[in-house]
Amino acid sequence: MNHHSTRTSISFKLNGKAIKVNINPFESLASLLRKDLGLTGTKIGCDAGDCGACTVLLDGEQVCACLVSSAQADGTNIETVESQSNPTLDRLRDAFLEYGAAQCGICTPGMLMAATDLLTRNKAPDRAQIADALGGVLCRCTGYEPIIDAIAAAASGAGPLSSENPDAGHAVGARVQRTDGSAKVYGTEKFADDDAPDNCLWLRAIRSPHPRATFEIIDPDGFVNSNPGIEAVLTAADIQGANGYGIFSHLRHQPVFAETRVRHRGEPVCALVGDRNAVEHADISTLIRWNEDPPALGIDGGLDSTKSPLHEDWPDNVLIRGYVEKGHINGAAVAATSEGHFETAFVEHAYIEPEAGFAAPDGTGRVAVTASTQAPYMDRDEVAHVLGIDADQVRIIPSACGGGFGGKLDVLVQPMLAVAAMKMNRPVRTLLNRIESMASSTKRHPSKIWARASADKSGRLLSYESDATFDTGAYASWGPTVAGRVPVHATGPYVVPNVCNKSAAIFTNANPSGAFRGFGVPQAAIANETLMDDLAEQLGIDRLEIRHLNAIRAGQETATGQVLEHSAGLDQCLDALRDDWQAMLADADAFNKPAGRIRRGAGIGCMWYGCGNTSLSNPSTMRITINTDGIVTVYNGAVDIGQGSYTVMRQICADAVSIPVEQIEQVTGDTDLTADAGKTSASRQTFVSGKAAQLAGEDLRRNILVLANAGENAEIVIEAGVIRVIEDNVRRVIELESLAADSDGVVLEGTGTYDPPTTPLDDKGQGTPYATYGFAAQICLADVHLDFGTVMLRRFVAAHDLGRAINPTLVEGQIKGGIAQGIGMALMEEFIPGRTENLHDYLIPTCGDIPPIEIKIIEDPEHHGPYGAKGIGEPALVPTPPAIFGAIRHATGIVVRQAPALPHRVWKLLQEGNSP
Amino acid sequence: MANYFQPDTIEEALALKAASPLTVLAGGTDIYPAKVTREAWGPRMEQDILDISRIASLRGIERSGGTWRIGALATWTEIAKASLPGLFDALKLAAIEIGGRQIQNRGTIAGNICNASPAADGVPCLAVMDASVELHGSHGTRTVPVFEFIDGYRSTILAGDELVTAILIPEKPDATRAHFLKLGARRYLVISITMAACVIVPDRDGNIASAAISVGACSEKAVRLDALEAVLLGAPLDSDLSGHVAPSQFNGLSPIDDVRASGEYRRASAIQAVNELLRQVSNGDVKRIAS
């Protein structure tokens, strides 16, 4: 028998090598691999067997390393993503790169190991067997299909090659492999918890278990004295600058540490700093005395005037209102009117990488913060504000980002890490576990929406009115953005002459609602598209055709009075879908002929989405250099959170200079090294930063041509130490050593800055809020089980006008991933504070929940954008829930007005509706 | 400081368990998640662990003298892959729908019943197999029906000095049919909203000689539907058995509202799941999931 107290020696085989370690026997294998052996390729997403990110092979079988004790690993054979000796794994790695199966890459190690297990047992699995093998690994980015495609290709040997190596000048539009893909499939990518200095102190935030309470921290000095290894209890009193952060500079009211009262469960009140073991084991049960107050929960709770307000500055709990008005609502020519009330839930981003990072002072008064982020320059300003120092005293170094989707635009860890690092004058590190992450991070705004639409007898929209109220949670975060975006977008992508759209964001005692793929537009689209279906039904018009009739086109005016100049391709999207739509309708008709307990239906959703900030300047700057050795480097601050901006910017720069894409090196997202390329949100990086990259590349090309005294069509060839410029068989050679170099060895550079042209909205919401809009239509076919209320999706077809697909593989990845998140929002995702704070009670789609997705890329060029491109990140998700709800309605006759349509809700509607 | 014991024999394990309170660890699929939830709001807890995974005699699936014995450490994957008669078809279906492959590769059958979750996928299956739990304690061995072993919401009669050593299942005729259906809000890795399981034994003429039907996740523990079982006796197995299902047979359920579903829905879906279960078991066209 083995009896271990605290530590024991175990031996096992790890990736083919014998290993012997002295270890706490109860420590999980995942922790052993990462912490003790430094093999950080194995990721910890939930530490509870719910996400599969830590999947490794134990004696050849896939297991969650977070559920295996180190003692149980003794004598076994463990294989991880770092394995260099497994030909099956190698084949899978290549296929993952070929098919774009790794986006952010945080699930990739788990997926690869699960697939290795499968292919070792089954050389020729079918897609259902692949899905069975991957069912325990969650991916939030890809929609799974690219992963299944990759595994199928790896199994069959030489699958059809998907990626391309384009010649100079042909990178845009090519399926170039991800720049950062290799690190993701070998497990060498450094995410936020994968790398930190050895001498870090550990920080553990202590959070409120109550949604609303006042509190007192009892004798923190005494606590430090009685807990060896703990060096400080940091509280609001330790904050060097302002104890508040927030997206908008006039709304920086979210405290780093609450001062006397907490406004949501999960809000930090203090932090223990010290030795990791000590801060993790410290008994905090007597550190804080809580006095609970009745919380204001839900929109109705926030608007309940009998409760005291959350913030003195907002006595009615209304953070902000939004408004767009155009024309006059009157009854003239109205042939059909529809209205309804709609409701949506909190939605969790469920990035598989929890928040983590470290801050390190440099001894000169500067601090560097390394964390997973979507917005390094905003983080820099937030940290500087909290520290009370100038922004240039702060450096933000983004780690690889294991998924964001809007949730890593807010700074859950950066300010407190910086405060602690400066206070302790030591590097300080933290990691949130899954429960803490879900309990404390932002969510998608829950909504209650009323809307009414009218149309004439031909189906042309006459009016649209809506009033959308959002639960913005305890602090402002991105509430103003949602309240501003929704009235602009609420009419949907249609021409509506008379509009009155209102919105409001209400404070409640819940997680701050923040940014999540679509900023309120997905919620509004459910209302909008349902009313479109109503009008079609009343007027006897096909649902696709009524949308085609009303689709806004170039030359027509939006609800804000903006005339779209070009690139408004919704009608083209619908044209591209018409045959599939007719086929789906026919399929449903035929299926439903014999009366069964399963009914089939087809649904359609359309969307538009303004790329970039709403009526605000949001410039990006890019720089591209050549050094004396002839190395071309792009300084790219557009953080890649999995969507592919590190690949897209290289492709754009390559074509702008007209050199091969593989010749372009890259320095990414470090505020000391790269210029501000804004935040990775609002579907702006390809459009805004991409344009800046194009301008930078063109600037560099121009500078080279001037130096060579060559015309604009000359060919540029960059080699070691020289640039050859070839024009009409005349060859000129620029010896780079002969040029003056700066301290970095840079001899030539190009820069580009782009800020999309917008105007402020007036008091009726009139103006030009965005320079361009993405458009899309999606259709789906679904089966609804009448007895269980379950919805089984059969097929999606998505047509997206994105101006120009810089990289079709990345575009398809965005669309498939967006549809997967839309499926989750429509059918299963509902965050309830205190109840669904883990990944087994909060459900996101697994690989078995995503039907086949066909994609039709429509390229109606946007003249403002780089090579005609505009954004795709958010447009991918917006039409999905209404398309699903339309299919449920077509199948059964019930109208879903509440998301998510959990089985019991669909069933209830079926009961009430006396439907088939 | 916490202790971690890894005995090789049942005797050693029982001696340890009798000496002090220990948390039993096998597949880890419940212990580690509970730990992470606790640690989000409080300190890391040091628990004394009794790791039983090295006790070889707790492994294996075998038949002797009319009884199948499933070792406490049998994993779901081992059960799914074992060559077993039709009686086990329900349990085998549950085995491939519990969690994902990683959970199936580690989670054990004894852990499933000891955790005693109302939504434990294995329990309704064991209930219809008339399974018993073999317990070894410092004062001897006892065998209790699985339904008595689980005595309430996440509660068992396991004494402090006892260990579950095996699940015992009486053999049934070769013609026995068994089936399991699980209803959840997503395809994989999902906690059941409702489950239904059955074991039906036909007589020589193809009429039902005995029927056992249970529903999970609709009460504190899985419930056998005695009234339905009684009315099925004598019915031809290949007839549409769902015609015998009546709502009153489900009065013993006490489903609750939770984040996964309403109680009202659970009751209705349990009835439909049993309908579907019987329809499929009678026509032989069995499916893996309820939806």
Roughly what is the average pLDDT of chain A, rounded to an integer?
97
Name of the top-level CATH class of one domain in chain A? Alpha Beta
**What would the principal axes of the Cα set say about the shape of chain B?**
globular
Q: Which overall shape of chain A is indicated by the principal axes computed on the Cα atoms?
A: globular
The CATH architecture of one domain in chain A: Alpha-Beta Complex
Q: DSSP strand (E) fraction of chain A?
A: 15-25%
List the quaternary state of the chains: heterodimer
What is the tally of helical segments of chain B?
10
The number of strands of chain B is 14
Rg of chain A, nearest Å: 28 Å
Model regions low in confidence, pLDDT < 50 over at least 5 residues of chain B: none
The CATH fourth-level homologous superfamily of one domain in chain A: Aldehyde oxidase/xanthine dehydrogenase, a/b hammerhead
Q: Describe the sheet with the most strands of chain B.
A: 5 strands, antiparallel
Uncertain parts of chain A: none
Give the helix/strand class of chain B: alpha+beta
Which class of one domain in chain B in CATH terms? Alpha Beta
- End-to-end gap of chain B: 49 Å
Structural class of chain A: alpha+beta
For the biggest sheet of chain A, the summary is: 7 strands, mixed
Q: In order across it, which strands form the biggest sheet of chain A?
A: 9-11-7-18-15-16-17
